[in-house]
Amino acid sequence: MVPPSIDIEEGFIEITHRGRTDVLPFPKQPGSFYHLSKVHDSHNIQFACRIWGLRSTDLNQGIVYGQETDETVIHPDLATRFDYDGVFGTVLNRFVVQAMAGYPLTVYGKGGQTRGMLDIRDTLACVELAAMNPPEPGEYRVFNQFTESFSVNQLAQLVQEVAPSQVEIVHLDPPRVEKEDHYYRAAHTKLMDLGLVPHLLSSSLIRSLMSVAERNRDRIDPAAIEPTVNWRRTTNAASAVKPGISADVLPCASDADSTEDPGSGRGFMAFSSTTAPGSDHRR
């Protein structure tokens, strides 16, 4: 995502131009080809609602953190993946793994990149609320699906404060093409209005993630932590498949974050007994 210098509305914005006023879709500026494909999806869905009378809720999801839900803790076979590599790993998950592995917390550039975030438990609650409260026939609606926002620097400092041992924060040359410091304020009231009760980020939640990483410390691949994909280059050193992992279990991109980029299959912990493909998204 390329954050605009105005507030981000939930789907639509009222515009007055040369004396005339209309409500139009809020313009999106994709930060990657992955996000561009999501923007195309939104346009296609809105078109189908307008022309064919379909009804749709477009969930513009923020960055997900966490690994456990009330259901996944019932049995080990229900555990979800925990991606931490430089392509598919989300920023908080990455920092937690880095801290537990004795690795510096790698902040890209200035670290002012700010995004909306939410707990994995709230991700499921948002989908349920949207399904239980459907739009009218022909209606296309947009919910900004996140509960609070953080900069990369803020997240690094939170992890540094909670880490059981001293951990360093380092700033790397940014491998992405993105603003490193910018205005960010996005509306996110519609799901709250439907009854969402968010799980806000806390020290106890970060500690729970650290315990997950600690239990699986022997499965952490330090080579997967460093960013291997530079957006400015047409070729990169990242291998498409990690030795010993077949292509059919590589992580696949999902959700609506704007900064996904295809690349290495390294850097995930599949805690379940069956290693299914899937991923969360990275900042």
How many β-strands, per DSSP? 11
CATH architecture: Alpha-Beta Complex
Oligomeric grouping of the chains: single chain
Name given to the CATH homologous superfamily: UDP-galactose 4-epimerase, domain 1
* Span of the ends, CA to CA: 10 Å
What is the helix content? 25-40%
What average pLDDT do the residues reach? 84
Strand content: 15-25%
How is the biggest beta sheet arranged? 3 strands, mixed
Shape: globular
Low-confidence stretches: 239-266, 268-283
Description:
- This protein is of the alpha/beta class.
- It has one domain: UDP-galactose 4-epimerase, domain 1 (Alpha-Beta Complex), CATH 3.90.25.10.
- It contains six helices and eleven strands.
- The protein has helices spanning 33-52, 91-100, 120-132, 152-162, 190-193, 203-215; strands at 12-17, 20-25, 56-61, 63-65, 81-83, 105-108, 114-119, 140-145, 148-151, 169-172, 268-270.
- It is globular, with a radius of gyration of 19 Å.
- The chain starts with 11 loop residues before the first strand and ends in a 13-residue tail after the last strand.
- Mean pLDDT is 84; it is low at 239-266 and 268-283.
